[in-house]
Design goal:
With 104 residues, this protein is α+β, with helices and mostly antiparallel strands. Helix content is 33%, strand content 26%.
Length: 104
């Protein structure tokens, strides 16, 4: 399993809406994440900076990267664009973090 950590940024005042949308995650989005090898997906929020911290375990980098081009993922990005910083294609502005410590 490969551990990925990353940061994204919410627009001010949007944490409740972000959480609501994720708590109501579409079944087809959940299926897509699992079909592309994603497991143990967690997103946390730092209220001081409007920063989201994501953690996901993936089976394969290439397989996971393919998930970005699925129609359901593109639809999700469009749905989430009003609440967070996005790129021109509505993908979230996301920065990978370097793991510096892990303990099983």
């Amino acid at each position: 399993m490969i551990r990925k950590t990353f940061v994204m940024h919410l627009y001010p005042g949007m944490v409740e809406e972000y959480a609501k949308r994720h708590n109501e995650l579409w079944p087809e989005m959940k299926d897509m994440i699992h079909e592309h090898g994603g497991h143990n997906y967690t997103i946390s929020f730092d209220e001081r900076t409007n920063t989201l911290f994501g953690y996901i375990e993936i089976e394969d980098e290439e397989r996971w990267a393919e998930s970005a081009d699925t129609p359901i993922n593109r639809k999700w990005w469009d749905f989430m664009a009003p609440v967070m910083e996005t790129n021109p294609d509505n993908s979230p502005v996301s920065e990978d973090l370097r793991e510096v410590f892990h303990l099983d």
